[in-house]
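Predict the 3D structure for this chain.
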Amino acid sequence: MALQRPDKKPANPNFSSGPCSKRPGWTLDALKGALLGRSHRTGIGVKRIMEVIDLSKSVLGIPDDYILAVVPASDTGAVEMAMWSLLGERGVDALGWEVFGKTWIADITKQLKLKDVRLFEAPFGSIPDLSEVDTDRDVVFTWNGTTSGVRVPNGDWIKADRKGLTICDATSAVFAMDLPWDKLDVVTWSWQKALGGEAAHGMLALSPRAVARLESYTPPWPMPKLFRLTKDGKLFTEPFEGKTINTPSMLAVEDCLDALKWAQSIGGLQAMIKRSAASLKAVENWLAKTDWAEFLPEREDIRSSTSICFKVVDPWLMDKDPAEQLKFIKSVEKLLDKEGIAHEVANHRNAPPSFRLWGGATVEPSDIEAVLGWIDWAYNDLKAAEQAQAA
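Done. Predicted structure below.
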C-alpha cells in the first residue's frame, strides 16, 4: 500500500559513504585561506600539512609516541603501504567480512603471496570469531566494515603483550568510534570518509612497535617509491614531519583543516561520537516500526554507526532473484535522487542488495530521521506501482 508523501525533507540530501557529506554549514568560503600556487615543500607549506597532522592527533587522542603522516592514494594507499612495508616477518591472520577486508585478504594472498596466512572470513552481516585470532601473529582487519555495516565491538581480543602487529583499516571508524589506540599498531583512514574532505589523501599512524618492525625487518620484494617508509634501514622521517612523499593538494589540505577545526568547535571526538550514535539510534527506532526492512548486521553489538546498512525482508521482494532485488533498490534510490531528497542510499555494488546511509559526524542526525520516512514512502510507492502493473 502506498504511503502518504512526507512533508519534511532532509536539509542536506548527501548520504554517500564516500566521499561523505561536508560538515554542517560548509561553503566554498571555507577554502579562502588555501595555500594555492605555492610549493608544499616551502616552510609555510610544510607548516600547513603539519597542522593537519597535529590537529588530527589532538582530536583523535592519538598517543604522543605514535607518529602520523599524510600519504598518497587515500586509505587504500595507507593500508597497502603498511602491508607491503611490514608484513612477512611472521605469520598473518587476515580478517574479512565485507568488500574492503576481503580486498586486503586478496592482496596478502595473491599479490604479496605470503605463505603463512590464516583467513578469518564471515558473510555480510556477520563477523568472524575474534577470540580465535592470534595476536602474536600480525593481524590485518577493518575496524568497521563500510559495505556491511558491521564493526568490531571492542579491542578486548587483542593482547596487550602481543608479539605481532595489528594493522587496522579504520577509515569509516575514526572520528565516530572510540578506538583502543594502545591495541593498534597501524591505523589508516582518509579525509573524504571520516571528515567529509576531498579525495586522494590518506593518513597513516604508526606505534613505536610498528616503527621498530620497520627498522628491524626488510621485506624480500621490490618496494615502490610511494610505499617506502625506510631509508638505509631507518625510518624515513620526512612524511611524519609534513614533507609528503608526493605532492598533495593544498586545496584539500585547507578543506581538511576546516573539518578538523569544526570537530574541535563542537566538542571534539566525544561530540562526534555522540552525533554518529544519534544517527544510528534514529535508524534503530525506524526499523523497530518498519515491517519490510531490518539491519544487515545480525547482532546489536556489531552494528556500525557510520555505514548504517539495512536490508529488505519483505517476501514480495525477497522472492525475486538478487538482480531484480538490486534493480528495485536502485529504483528507490533513483526516485529519491530525482526528488532531491537523498543521493546514494543504495549499498556498495558488491554488497548484498540493501540500503546504506552514512551516519558519520558530518551528517545531521535530524537529516537521517527525515530521510527514513522518504525511503519508506519511495519503497511502498514503487512496490504499489509494480503490483498494480502486474495485476
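The chain is about 35% helix and 15% strand.
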